[in-house]
Design a protein that fits this description.
The complex is a heterodimer of chains A (82) and B (147). Chain A has 82 residues and is of the alpha+beta class. Chain A has a single domain, classed as Ubiquitin-like (UB roll). Chain A has helices spanning 8-14, 28-38, 40-45, and strands spanning 2-6, 18-21, 53-56, 59-61, 72-76. The radius of gyration of chain A is 12 Å and the shape is globular. With 147 residues, chain B is an alpha+beta fold. Chain B has a single domain, classed as Molybdopterin biosynthesis MoaE subunit (Aldehyde Oxidoreductase, domain 3, Alpha-Beta Complex), CATH 3.90.1170. Chain B has helices at residues 12-21, 55-70, 101-118, 138-143, and strands at 2-6, 28-35, 46-51, 73-81, 83-85, 90-98, 121-127, 130-133. In chain B, strands 1-4-6-2 form a four-stranded mixed β-sheet, with helices on both faces. In chain B, strand 7 (121-127) and strand 8 (130-133) form a beta hairpin. Chain B is globular. Chain B starts with a strand and ends with a helix. Classes of the chains: A alpha+beta (82), B alpha+beta (147). Chain A binds chain B through residues 5, 7-9, 55, 58-60, 74, 76-82, and chain B through 34, 50, 52, 54-55, 58-59, 80, 91-92, 112, 115-124, 133-136, 141.
Chain lengths: 82, 147
C-alpha cells in the first residue's frame, strides 16, 4: 500500500487530501496512468504533466522514477514559497 | 543554522536580535523579510499558506546546507509561516551572517531563490470571498539557472 497525498488545487479538485492505494505500478508515470483511469477528476487533474510535481518519500522526483520502495507519494503544483 | 516552520506570528527585529547574539567575529549580516501585500490597497482580504509537513523542514534544511557549501557564511536563519495571514503580516524571513558582505548578500539571494521554487509551500489569495491559488512566475523558475 502506498499513501498518496495531494496538495493545493490538486487536493481540491480530487476532493481528498490523501488515500491509500494498492498498486502494481513501477514508476510514477505508471501510477499516474492508473489514477487517471479511476474517474474524470483524476484524468483532468493529471492531464498536463507540466502543471504538477511529484515527491517520493518526501523527496522531489522525476515522473520516470521508480516507486518500488515508495511508502508515500505526493502530487502538488509548482511551489510558491518565500 | 536555525530553521522554523510555524503558524505563529514572528517579530523580525527580535528574531534578528536572537540570531545575531549567538554570532561571533562576523562582518556582515543580511536579512530579508517577506510581507503579505495589500495593507492599504485592499487588494487582498487574507492569504492562506499550505505546506507539506515533514518535507518542508527537510527541504529547507537541504537548501540551507547547500548554501553553506557554496558560500563562506558563518550562520543562516530561515523562518517560514503557514496558515492564515493578514495583509501586512510577515510571511517569512531569512538571515545570513558572514565575514564579508559579498558572501552574505549572495547566500541570501540564493536561499530566497530556492525557497521560492523548491520549498513545498502553496499560497492562496482571498479577495471578496474569491479564492485564487498563486501561480509560479516563470522568472522565479528562471532565477535558479543563474546559480
Amino acid at each position: 500500500m502506498i499513501e498518496v497525498i495531494y496538495f493545493s488545487w490538486i487536493r481540491e479538485r480530487i476532493g481528498k487530501s490523501s488515500e491509500s492505494i494498492e498498486t502494481r505500478a513501477a514508476t510514477v508515470i505508471e501510477l499516474i496512468e492508473e489514477l487517471k483511469k479511476k474517474d474524470v477528476r483524476y484524468s483532468e487533474v493529471f492531464s498536463d504533466l507540466g502543471s504538477f510535481r511529484v515527491a517520493i518519500n518526501q523527496e522531489l522526483a522525476n515522473f520516470d522514477a521508480s516507486i518500488i520502495e515508495a511508502t508515500e507519494i505526493a502530487f502538488f503544483p509548482p511551489m510558491t514559497g518565500g | 543554522m536555525h530553521i522554523s516552520v510555524q503558524n505563529e506570528f514572528f517579530d523580525f527585529s527580535k528574531e534578528i536580535e536572537n540570531f545575531s547574539a549567538k554570532l561571533d567575529n562576523i562582518g556582515a549580516l543580511v536579512t530579508f523579510t517577506g510581507i503579505v501585500r495589500g495593507q492599504k490597497s485592499k487588494t487582498l482580504d487574507y492569504m492562506l499558506i499550505e505546506h507539506y509537513p515533514g518535507m518542508t523542514e527537510a527541504q529547507i534544511k537541504l537548501i540551507v546546507e547547500e548554501t553553506f557549501k557554496r558560500w563562506k557564511i558563518c550562520d543562516a536563519l530561515v523562518i517560514h509561516r503557514y496558515g492564515k495571514l493578514e495583509p501586512g503580516e510577515p510571511i517569512m524571513m531569512i538571515a545570513t551572517a558572514a565575514q564579508h558582505r559579498k558572501e552574505a548578500f549572495e547566500a541570501a539571494e540564493y536561499l530566497m531563490d530556492y525557497l521560492k521554487s523548491r520549498a513545498p509551500f502553496w499560497k492562496k489569495e482571498i479577495l471578496n470571498g474569491e479564492e485564487k491559488w498563486v501561480e509560479t512566475k516563470s522568472a522565479d523558475a528562471a532565477a535558479l539557472n543563474r546559480w
